[in-house]
Amino acid sequence: MVKIDFAYCPKIADCIDAVKANELWLDGILNDSDKRKFVCPGKTCSAQITCANMDKTKIEQVRAPYFVFTKRNKTIHAPKCDFEEQVELLREKQDSETRISQENCDQISFRMNRPEDTKTMKLSISSDLSNEDKNDDNRELPEAEYAKRQITHSNYYLLSSLVDKYLIALKEDKLDSVRVLIEYPEKGYTYKLSTLFKRIHNIGITKDLKGKTKIFYGKAFINYNRDKTGYWISFQESFKTSKKKVLCFINAETIKNTVNYQFKERNLLKNNVDRELYVFIMGKVKETETSVYINIDPNNLDMMAVSIDDILLTKSFEVNSIED
Ligand SMILES: [Zn+2]
Questions:
Q1: Which tens digit of pLDDT belongs to each residue from 1-45?
Q2: How far is the CA of 224 from the centre of ligand 1 (A)?
Q3: How far apart are the CA of 80 and the centre of ligand 1, in A?
Q4: Any idea what the CATH number is for the domain that residue 278 is in?
Q5: Does 285 fall in a domain?
Q6: How far does residue 22's CA lie from ligand 1's centre (Å)?
Q7: Residue 241 lies in a domain
Q8: Which domain of life is it from (predicted)?
Q9: How far away, in angstroms, is 122 Cα from ligand 1 center?
Q10: How many folded domains does the chain comprise?
């Protein structure tokens, strides 16, 4: 059986992956009950799919979110379901785009500025919902709905989603074969996961690194600042070329700039005060006489992620050893 990488979400009338489903839940766009409302993206098919771990924060997840068929012991796909053909088509398309056919290359994209409709948490909720009949496996879909079921590559805007992909690739030893298109409003740049993510103790602060936006991460402690208006993230490791303390300050403005900010402040910062964990920051490095600062950029909590995944412990000295 083909692994379910994508499922159709009737609520937003789009075909998404499980990490994306969790992203929309973290934003408050999908609710807890939506986790059981996914269906097979195949034409004429309505095999029910559940998104495991969709309704959990990254700290609560033992593994990244994933899809499973809701009813496991049945012939679940409709007779004319073309799910497997769609998966094959997507694979071919990605291979030809990346020209690395033998490597099974995955492409994902990440938006530095989230889409407008997600800022107000008013994604266009599908009107098809009312006439959805979950029990009719053979119903023909209207052409318009079928078009929405086309599988495309994944597009995220929360750093935590990209971190999920990074950790999965790290486990599968695929950091060089997963590429991320980083989309700015004007243009885009493609990176391998292995060059986008920078483990702090594995790299030096070179001239080249200064002023560049990268994803920096390492073991850290989170604490309130003196007047409790913000948080200090104190990394427990230094850059290769410097013994200086590495810090990131999250101020009230950063928090207020974030969609669904109370929830995200609680889960990323407040609940983790005094706890050692891995912190990921999209941002730029700035060195002063006494410290090295990682300044979050764009300035909102979408660009911060935390993890307690073991893989970072076991593989931490092997990855990101190449400086570029
Ligand atoms: Zn199906």
A1: 567 888 999 898 888 999 999 999 999 999 999 999 999 888 778
A2: 49
A3: 8
A4: 2.40.50.140
A5: yes
A6: 22
A7: yes
A8: Bacteria
A9: 29
A10: 1
